């Protein structure tokens, strides 16, 4: 008895300790279960809104800044902008990989937003100190002084910092906001409001901040953008105790590579009458789908695998299906790359057209800044997002019994984009006709002469393309978020950014090809044929829309076939 008593005591103590640990875990679970939801919405959306304001103040008028302060020729300035925007939309990919694989979205957003703050502060200094820029171009009949290598080096370094900072936060913020919700309807509503706030911020920055830059001071304009960036960082950190943080599970790209390596190693193994490897938490035990059947070999268990659950010779069924999802969606993703390039070229050419037109408002002396015309684009997008969410969605669901699908939204965006390009070409024809009637053709001094043709005509195509973006980009980000594997959630939203980045690089190549092959794009637009360029872009858009329809049909067919296969497997 005396020997057993201490054992009982130890047993009681251990049970008490287990109960304390269990109660503590329950309290922590209850504490963390209260995190997330709409409580986090003001902080995340406020951060995104402030940083989007900073982005608009930085890049919205950058093409004019390069032309007027760095003496860069107009078409060369558009090429620089294409590269800058390409980098800006490319860097969300490394940010998403870091968020998914290592640190989670919170750390990525904090670090990258601080980097962008440093970049914006330095950008303000380039406007404040004339020594960082070439001498002003006073006599337009003489060649202007080009920036020195040092000045170009400083400028490109600053542009690189801002691209990294702004790019790393843009879509990671979107993913972190979506992770706060469990209900798919709440996620869809969040994405609508996210894009609505994004475009409203762009509309404000493209008017108010651009006006300050053009009419008051470039230093003050960039300074406001830097201050807005700082406010965004403070807002985001203020809500840190309310956020629901999803821990990263390691690099999802490692599992993708493991599937390919394992399938290649077992290429001689028959895919029939074999046991498959499943994740521990996968209770369905459904067989892999029939599509891309070769990859199924990666999840086949053979004697040499032993007790391993995962290795470079053995993956799980879920990992195989995740890779198949990526393969199925990539053709559809590629159909939007060219479209994003057309949108980028359209925006740049709109600014150049505005510089060559009468920008006075009515008969007043007030002149609208050229870059501010993009305000009508962003405003149209913001309003259309609200109308789509509150009016079009409910009506469509009432008439058809089902909501408007992401694929249908993307398709509408394709069509409207082509219509906007056609209308822009028609307006350019009229502008060139006016330039010809006023003898403004053939008198080039290196810059485009202003034609007495109202620039407000540009509002119509800008509105149409803005509405197209209201259908296009939210539809894409929702599609990728729904269809991508859970482990690639941050990467899924960044896929929109990647296609825009590739689109901008592609537009740089298209612009260079047109310049080398034709005389349509001249530094003096009055001596070129920008209208033909618009016709060409519209034709490319039509062909690309046909490609999208083919990809969408193939994707839907494969998705339906996959669902049927999963249902049959589960029932058996």
TrEMBL record:
Pfam families associated with the record: PTR2
UniProt keyword list: Membrane, Transmembrane, Transmembrane helix
InterPro entries associated with the record: MFS_trans_sf, POT_fam
Signal peptide: none
Molecular functions per Gene Ontology: transmembrane transporter activity
Family matches, as SUPFAM superfamilies: MFS general substrate transporter
Membrane topology qualifier: Multi-pass membrane protein
Localization per Swiss-Prot or TrEMBL: Membrane
Positions of transmembrane segments: 40-67, 79-99, 106-130, 150-171, 192-212, 218-237, 332-356, 368-388, 409-427, 455-481, 493-512, 532-552
GO cellular component terms, A-Z: membrane
Keyword Cytoplasm set for record: no
Gene3D superfamilies assigned to the protein according to its UniProt record, in alphabetical order: MFS general substrate transporter like domains
PANTHER family: OLIGOPEPTIDE TRANSPORTER-RELATED
Family of this protein: Belongs to the major facilitator superfamily. Proton-dependent oligopeptide transporter (POT/PTR) (TC 2.A.17) family.
Protein name: Major facilitator superfamily protein
Organism listed in the record: Artemisia annua (Sweet wormwood)
């Amino acid at each position: 008895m005396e020997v057993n008593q201490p054992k009982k005591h130890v047993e009681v103590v251990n049970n008490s300790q287990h109960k304390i640990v269990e109660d503590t875990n329950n309290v922590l679970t209850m504490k963390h279960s209260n995190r997330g939801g709409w409580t986090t919405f003001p902080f995340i959306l406020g951060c995104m809104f402030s940083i989007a304001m900073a982005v608009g103040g930085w890049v919205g008028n950058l093409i004019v800044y390069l032309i007027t302060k760095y003496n860069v020729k107009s078409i060369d300035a558009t090429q620089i902008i294409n590269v800058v925007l390409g980098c800006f939309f490319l860097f969300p990919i490394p940010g998403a990989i870091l968020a998914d694989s290592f640190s989670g979205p919170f750390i990525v957003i904090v670090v990258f937003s601080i980097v962008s703050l440093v970049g914006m502060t330095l950008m303000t200094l380039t406007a404040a100190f004339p020594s960082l820029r070439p001498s002003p171009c006073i006599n337009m009949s003489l060649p202007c002084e080009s920036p020195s290598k040092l000045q170009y080096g400083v400028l490109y370094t600053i542009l690189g910092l801002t691209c990294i900072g702004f790019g790393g936060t843009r879509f990671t913020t979107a993913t972190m906001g979506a992770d706060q919700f469990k209900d798919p309807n709440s996620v869809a509503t969040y994405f609508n409001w996210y894009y609505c706030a994004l475009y409203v911020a762009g509309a404000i920055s493209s008017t108010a901040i651009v006006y300050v830059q053009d009419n008051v001071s470039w230093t003050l304009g960039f300074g406001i953008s830097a201050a807005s960036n700082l406010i965004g960082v403070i807002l985001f950190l203020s809500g840190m105790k309310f956020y629901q943080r999803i821990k990263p599970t390691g690099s999802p790209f490692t599992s993708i590579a493991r599937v390919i390596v394992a399938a290649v190693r077992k290429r001689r193994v028959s895919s029939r009458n074999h046991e498959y490897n499943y994740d521990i938490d996968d209770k369905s035990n459904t067989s892999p789908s029939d599509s891309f059947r070769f990859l199924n070999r990666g999840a086949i268990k053979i004697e040499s695998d032993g007790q391993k659950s995962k290795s470079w010779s053995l993956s799980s069924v879920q990992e195989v299906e995740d890779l198949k999802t990526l393969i199925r969606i990539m053709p559809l993703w590629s159909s939007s790359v060219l479209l994003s390039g057309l949108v980028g070229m359209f925006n740049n050419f709109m600014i150049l057209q505005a510089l060559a037109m009468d920008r006075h408002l009515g008969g007043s002396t007030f002149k609208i800044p050229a870059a501010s015309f993009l305000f009508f684009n962003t405003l149209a997008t913001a309003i259309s997002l609200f109308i789509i969410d509150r009016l079009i969605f409910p009506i469509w669901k009432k008439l058809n019994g089902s909501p408007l699908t992401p694929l249908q939204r993307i398709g509408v965006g394709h069509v409207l984009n082509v219509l906007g390009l056609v209308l822009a070409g028609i307006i350019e024809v009229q502008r060139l006709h006016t330039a010809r009637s006023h003898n403004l053709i053939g008198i080039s001094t290196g810059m485009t002469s202003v034609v007495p043709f109202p620039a407000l005509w540009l509002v119509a195509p800008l509105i149409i393309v803005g509405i197209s973006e209201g259908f296009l980009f939210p539809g894409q980000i929702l599609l990728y978020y729904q269809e991508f594997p859970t482990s690639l959630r941050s990467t899924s939203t960044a896929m929109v950014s990647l296609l825009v980045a590739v689109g901008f690089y592609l537009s740089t190549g298209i612009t260079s090809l047109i310049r080398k092959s034709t005389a349509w794009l001249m530094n003096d637009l009055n001596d070129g044929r920008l209208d033909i360029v618009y016709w060409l872009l519209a034709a490319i858009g039509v062909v690309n829309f046909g490609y999208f329809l083919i990809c969408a049909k193939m994707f839907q067919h494969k998705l339906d076939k996959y669902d049927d296969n999963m249902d049959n497997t589960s029932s058996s």
